[in-house]
Amino acid sequence: MIDMMQLTELPRHVAIIMDGNGRWAEKMGKPRIYGHHKGVDVAIEIVQEALDLGIPYLTLFAFSKDNWKRPKSEISVIMTLMMNSLKSEFQRIIDSQVKINVIGNLSDLSHEVQEVLEDIKHRTANHKGLQLTLAISYESREEIVMATKSIIKKALLGDYKIEEINQDTINQHLYTSSLPYVDFLIRTSGEQRLSNFLLWQSGYAELFFDDTLWPDFSKDDFHKALNEYNNRERRYGKTGQQIKQQIFAV
Ligand code: FPP
Questions:
Q1: Is 67 a catalytic residue?
Q2: Distance separating alpha carbons of residues 179 and 59, to the nearest angstrom
């Protein structure tokens, strides 16, 4: 058990690729959707824990653009699960001032799902607690293309001079414009790739790959991951010596 009180540094923005629901269910001889049901319970538990620990931003990869290639029946269960959980089980964390935001190409979703998401965004818009971002029908490269097009349009209209375009300009045109960059990115299930998730935003994120399948990911696993983050030295290109001097200068 990790003593969370001993952690000196918590990440400001944690992003999680919740992977392994299907394999978890298959291992138990159950249909894949059983894993997604358990996956939602775990997602809620981890959001609650992030809230209790005081992590201000949490982004969950709930449904990727590539997930549309799955059998229609599985997609339909995931969408229904998402809607139902947001209307019911998520209520407890919403009552704790969690602000919910959604990123992705939401026009891909049915009107019914869009309405639920709009409603929850609207109802939590003034909440001051943890900012929970759900990435749904999301793909990082598509997001970057969208931002690029929108910057070019503005440049053609004269709103920007080409030489004024910088990293902030791109950042301001991403879905995540109101969020800080990702500090810590966790992926469960042993896969070690980013799968087109927050590529720009994770440019300096610490990466953590856990073998645990998402439905088995516990609060304790989350604590272990955060402990590992705490032990990493984020140098941003500087030397270890420079970082130590920076810390003592504060
Ligand atoms: C990854 O496991 C999980 C998904 C693709 C979807 C998970 C989304 C939910 C359960 C809904 C979450 C809803 C909210 C509101 C947070 P996988 O199926 O890719 O697992 P596998 O790699 O073992 O096949």
A1: yes
A2: 10
Per-residue pLDDT tens for 120-160? 999 999 999 999 999 999 999 999 999 999 999 999 999 98
First to last CA, the chain: 31
Q: Is the CB of 215 under 6 A from ligand 1?
A: no
Between CA 180 and CA 125 the distance in angstroms is: 18
- For ligand 1, atom 24, which residue shows the shortest CA distance? 22
Strand partners, 136: 63
Catalytic annotation, pick one of 19, 21, 183, 210? 19
Q: Which of 157, 225, 158 is nearest to 18 (CA)?
A: 225
What is the C-alpha separation between 148 and 53, in angstroms, rounded? 36
DSSP state at residue 42: H
Q: pLDDT tens digits for 217-244?
A: 999 999 999 999 999 987 778 777 777 7
Give SS3 for 91: helix
- Radius of gyration (C-alpha) of the chain in whole angstroms: 19
**92 CA to centre of ligand 1 in angstroms:** 21
- Give the count of beta carbons closer than 10 Å to the beta carbon of residue 183: 20
DSSP-assigned beta bridge partners for residue 60? 16, 134
The residue type found at 234 is R
Q: Kindly state the tokens that stand for 68.
A: 């549309």
DSSP H helical ranges for 28-158: 32-53, 72-87, 91-94, 111-124, 140-156
Is 18's C-beta closer than 6 angstroms to any atom of ligand 1?
yes
Residue of 67, 171, 196, 230 marked catalytic: 67
